[in-house]
Amino acid sequence: MARPRTALLDVERIVDEALRISDATGDFTVTELASKLGVHPSSLYHHVSGRDQVVDLMRARIGRTIDNSAFGTVPWDEAMRRLAWSYRSAFARHPGSIRLLATALVRDKESLMEYDRFANGLHTAGFSWPEVLPIIIAFDNFVLGSALDMASGGNNLYTPDPQTHPALSAAVGAPENPANPTDVAFETGLTAILTGLRHKLDNR
Amino acid sequence: MARPRTALLDVERIVDEALRISDATGDFTVTELASKLGVHPSSLYHHVSGRDQVVDLMRARIGRTIDNSAFGTVPWDEAMRRLAWSYRSAFARHPGSIRLLATALVRDKESLMEYDRFANGLHTAGFSWPEVLPIIIAFDNFVLGSALDMASGGNNLYTPDPQTHPALSAAVGAPENPANPTDVAFETGLTAILTGLRHKLDNR
């Protein structure tokens, strides 16, 4: 009957709480995590090796909802398109954790398997090995920046004055614009990137 | 002689401190800001109208180092390229503030003038008004995601195992890769986006 809260501790609860803290504050420490879980920090070390492993588990958790299954079944650019949409949605649910995960080493085996599949898909499509890593990084950066935009509610954030900023006003006020431009912007950027990459392959 | 610290308060100091707090914690409150500046919150209101104006001033401050002067002097895609590099560098110095600024309204007159110049440059290049806003948002998202990557030190973050992740290992281990892939990745993504946008214009 002793220490029931410790007895209930498991990896899932630790990851839940680490994501909650990071979403709220942008980061977490083992001390904060233990405190929020109502346990002594040493109890955490029965379940995880330390902060780095918790970060790995956070990435793996978010990655669970990312669909990367299309590589090898549809053309590479269609596979990247499907990956991009589910990747953005997954991270848009954790905007406070984006900076932490975007700047930490990728070490968890689930994410590494997915990146391996992505790298293989790009190489199979015709990109040379030295071209693959920059494409993956650029794609990650576009998707994570877009996830921040999506998490902001995706509303237009520009507030031009028609007299002083006529061009921006015309752009923001175009009657064809959707109320929430985040998806159209994502589609526009994604299509541009994929078209540019295809052009690179086609012009060898 | 009374309250010397209040007497020394000015807008520049307020913005410096707001950036410092946001870079460290991802956000700031007027209470925190006043506390760090050693003044009562009411003193801040002699200089700024409130938190929103401080956010505007933070954006304007970062924007001071962004070079957007090329629109109208060189082809639109070359102007976007120059804008992108200086925009990424400016925000990479403030990674903790990226989320805050990426999700807040753009209201400061300096930034609005620059976005107006950007919008005008795109429309002059041939993009329709409804196309301009999504291009600007997608470009912002790519640049801000890339600024996070640059701020992480720009080192390769993927740690594949050659046996388990052969494709990712080949990509990461390509002898041609630079030690710091962030700039090559940025150039790759930027070129793809600009090529894709040019393709859109050329195929009308």
UniProtKB/TrEMBL annotation, chains A, B:
Keyword Transcription regulation: yes
The Tetracycline repressor TetR C-terminal domain, residue ranges: 76-200
Species of origin: Rhodococcoides trifolii
SUPFAM superfamilies: Homeodomain-like, Tetracyclin repressor-like, C-terminal domain
UniProt name for this protein: Tetracycline repressor, C-all-alpha domain protein
Keywords attached to this entry: Repressor, Transcription, Transcription regulation
Top-rank taxon, per record: Bacteria
Taxonomic lineage of the native organism: Bacteria, Bacillati, Actinomycetota, Actinomycetes, Mycobacteriales
UniProt-listed GO biological process terms: negative regulation of DNA-templated transcription; response to antibiotic
